[in-house]
């Protein structure tokens, strides 16, 4: 399920003071994962933490800053300023319902601008969190027993395929077992985009993915979220 089915009465009874906004993307993920992969993953994380901690789950933002994937079929982006406005508008609207804390669950690494949005929101006090952070992902990789590190497993690799196999295995094409791409260092990614380092769009080792790893990663993220939530109390 990519969208909440809660009613107004459900949320009135929940009376959550913290909302969770999943932000994904609509971009190529090689020939074996859907364009909505980052959105599916962001929703899985957001749904898990919302359920575990009794938070107000929002529907996902399904397109974001995927400019590094330009040129691959199916990729659609919005501008960084547009994404900033969407997040800030959501936060302003929530305040009208006495929900004064917002967690942004980011499923797409290219949404660099979200870090600035969160920092600015917290100048006068803790009001917004960005999750998962790089350290959260690193810890979850370790807990899941992943072989690859984040630097080499950038896109449609072991991590993303593992999570997808766990939450929506029917969306993963069989081709992932033979799609590994070792791209090495990518010093000019901001100039060349992903196309400068891979022909297939894959950067990583999807062949190493398993649903068990995906389950362990999601469990670890849910546990680490507790620290972020405590800061918004």
Describe the structure in your own words.
It is a single chain. By secondary structure, this protein is of the alpha/beta class. It has one domain: Rossmann fold, CATH 3.40.50.10310. Helices cover 41% and strands 8% of the residues. The protein has eight helices and four strands. It has helices spanning 8-14, 37-53, 80-95, 113-121, 134-144, 158-168, 189-192, 211-231, and strands at residues 18-23, 56-57, 101-106, 128-131. It has a four-stranded parallel β-sheet, sandwiched between helices. Strand 1, helix 2 (37-53) and strand 2 (56-57) form a beta-alpha-beta unit. It starts with 7 loop residues before the first helix and ends with a helix.
